Amino acid sequence: MSHSASSRSADAGPARPRNRTAAGCTALMVAIGVGVTACGSGGHPLSAEPYDAAKDISFSTAVSDGKKADPDKPLEITAKDSGGRITDVTATDAAGRYLAGELTADGGRWHSTSPLAAGAHYMVRVSTEDEDGAPGRRTVDFETGVPRTKKRLDVTFGPDKGTYGVGQPVTAELSAPVKDKAARAVVERALKVRSQPAVQGAWHWVDDKELHYRPKEYWPAHATVRAHSNLAGIKVAERLWGGVAKPLTLTTGDRLEAVTDAAAHSMTVYRDGEAIKTIPVTTGKPGFDTRNGVKVVLGKEYFVRMRGTSIGIAEGTADSYDLPVYYATRVTWSGEYVHAAPWSAGSQGAANVSHGCTGMSTANAEWFFETFRAGDIVKVVNSYGDMMDTFGNGFGDWNLTWKNWRKGSALTADTPEGPPAEDRPKLRPEPA
């Protein structure tokens, strides 16, 4: 999330020492008393209006001659050999994106460390000081050219705008594959997710064209989550430039969690940490054991016709079935639901007899159907089934530890975990 534009580099060390006239001036004023000025009619150098620093600095790109700068090349600003130095540089484009950069310890050179956007208008504000410590300013505008390639990397955020449970990940689908780690880092830096209240989170690459974003823990209840892209015009890789992305805003409701103990044949539903309902259930029988782990509600279907052939059971065999099912709440794409199962009423709370779904009475299934929404949490423990797939069969994202989740990021994989979002210093505001 680096967006600081200039300031001195972290490892640059202290600025070079200089003998400032200001120091001698201050001492003299103390010696001769209040109300007497010294050091000439100009007074304290730092109290003067900034002068135009145009003659003190030079730019590496086509900034002053009216030509469009090459977005493939970095922006470089150099202090001319006149005893002065650069003290700060701030560069932003018309979209409010800061251009990250690094200033040398002696203030002699500043260069951008993030790529320029193509087809963008930039404003650059340079602060300097001369050999006497007097401040200088220079503000310039320039435009970048448009790359010859027509290949764009568009981004589609998901899910659709709406209210979801606290387990709903934010997804980003890319229009082209991105395999190189450096290119992935460019993409991640540009894909912003913010929540109110703020939480710590990270992107995870599911594959070359899909990323998921989740917090360290679940989203807070009643939060607002916003996702947007700053990728437009940014070079991602050779002949691939960032394209368009429609921003996304979603909200979360209560924290709803259903925890099914397959061994106890019982589901307990929690709202904001408080148990509100216990439901007798039946889960998968031997050979069809229900998956363990955390799942997220994908959707709800009032009526589903369930057939054994859909999960590989041959028609006419002992395990074959063809049933009308009501109040079906989906938790995997392969067909695992929480649903009404009146035919197994005698086993609910006592035995596991289903083909992998969680069955309950029609009244309890209707209550569950009406209470839960997409993104709410459904967890199964003490089953003999496999662990829920992390990706590909729904949202099993929460079954990865936070450490392993961060390993799927091009930015955080090899870095120590930082402070929570609310504790991080804010060097410069990010664009909304």
Gist?
This protein is mostly beta strands and 432 residues long.
Overview of this structure, please?
The protein has about 425 residues and is mainly beta. The protein is about 10% helix and about 35% strand. The strands form six sheets. The protein has a six-stranded mixed beta sheet, covered by helices on one side. A five-stranded mixed beta sheet has the order 21-20-19-27-22, with no helix packed on it. A hairpin with a 4-residue loop joins β19 and β20. The longest helix is centred in the first third of the chain and has 12 residues. It is elongated and about 90 Å long. The two termini are about 15 Å apart. The N terminus and C terminus are likely disordered.
